[in-house]
Amino acid sequence: MNNAIPFHLLERTNGADTHLVHTGRTPSVHGGLVNTPVCRGSTILSSTLEEWESRKTPENPMASYGRFGNATTRAFETAIAEMEGGYASIVFPSGLAACTHTLLALVKPGDHVLITDSAYGPTRTFARNVLQRLGIEVEFFDPLIGGGIAALMRPATRVVFVESPGSMTFEVQDIPAIAEQAKRHGALVVMDNTWASPIYFKPFEHGVDISIQAATKYIVGHSDALLGVATATREAWELLRAGAHDFGQTAGPDDLFLALRGIRSLSVRLRQHQANGIVLAEHIAAHRAVHRVLHPALPGSDGHALWRRDFLGASGLFGVVLKPMPRPQLSRFFARLELFGIGLSWGGFESLVLPVDTPQRATRAPDLPGPLLRVHAGLENASDLVRDFCGALDAAAA
């Protein structure tokens, strides 16, 4: 799809940080500019009939209409495909759009889709409300099923959708075991890989066919753009691309520019998010008001062995299950916080904490004796985050 050296091959001679600085940009093509410029436009002119006809072919890097991309789009898609280790990528206006349109690109009425019970809530809602309305049977499976998913496979099973760690409850799935069974039955494996990013989990090395990133999160990294991206193997690429184009999906060049900016510091930021998240989780786990912490990178936690086997690192996102706590105490906790904002999304430089309703589950009810919190450790000093969060827990438990 492009002439760039594959990211995984570059890693043999240079470090990941070096590649993130250089991937997806060619200054010589843009008058020496360090960053790929923001290319705005809808109409692309041709000077001859032959040029017009050549631009109508799918493989042409400069398509016949702005909806199919431009230099800014290509730079971002090239960088993500290299980072993920896939064949090619395509952008969407949000992470949810990447999930929903990937699924729509792969299924038809009468198909059967298996989705992890711990999938991102809006993805779950789409599957239940839209896919089933279109005559596609949706079945949610236990995220800890591993190779046992073979018992759920049917002749009509078209897609197995995984997300590891799981949304809100952070179960780590045995992706290689699930992928092995899916391939035996002719199904495609689609993964929401947002938690680990392309840096800390390499989906195509574990049997995934299409990997999805909510680039809004760590890739953009500054809480100022909405963006999604899906990356496919060579075999799955045509289905993914055709589906995206059929639905007219595209993304604005300004958001893409911000995402390219975020890529340059992704590895550095993730190291800090990981370090802060682990330190914060360890201190929170020891607090008297806490039932348990849901963080796969903590030794002894559920899924830790699988995380060590398959992942290259951890992000700053994890869960906290409090002991039973009346609403006034929970309100005191949030009122006491100074450094943590209360808000949706995550992956930016700032720390966040969000009260979470009991997640919907079709297989096993989560162990939640008290309130569930989703925590994102930002880039502040870890000691300051510990002081703020544990101080707020002290105030709630007083």
What does this molecule look like?
This protein is α/β, with parallel strands linked by helices. The protein folds into two domains: 258 residues, Aspartate Aminotransferase, domain 2, CATH 3.40.640; 132 residues, Aspartate Aminotransferase, domain 1 (Alpha-Beta Complex). Helix content is 37%, strand content 14%. The chain contains 14 helices and eleven strands. Strands 1-7-6-5-4-2-3 form a seven-stranded mixed sheet, with helices on both faces. The chain has a four-stranded antiparallel sheet with strand order 8-9-11-10, covered by helices on one side. Helix 8 links the parallel strand 5 and strand 6. Helix 5 runs parallel beside helix 6, helix 11 runs parallel beside helix 14 and helix 13 packs antiparallel against helix 14. The protein starts with 6 loop residues before the first helix and ends with a helix. The N terminus is likely disordered.
Would you spell out the secondary-structure blueprint of this structure?
Elements: H1 7-10, H2 16-22, H3 49-55, H4 71-84, E1 88-92, H5 95-106, E2 112-116, H6 121-131, E3 137-141, E4 157-163, H7 175-184, E5 188-192, H8 197-200, E6 210-213, E7 228-232, H9 234-246, H10 253-264, H11 266-285, E8 290-294, H12 304-310, E9 317-322, H13 327-336, E10 352-356, E11 372-376, H14 382-397
Parallel strand pairs: 2-3, 2-4, 4-5, 5-6
Antiparallel strand pairs: 1-7, 6-7, 8-9, 9-11, 10-11
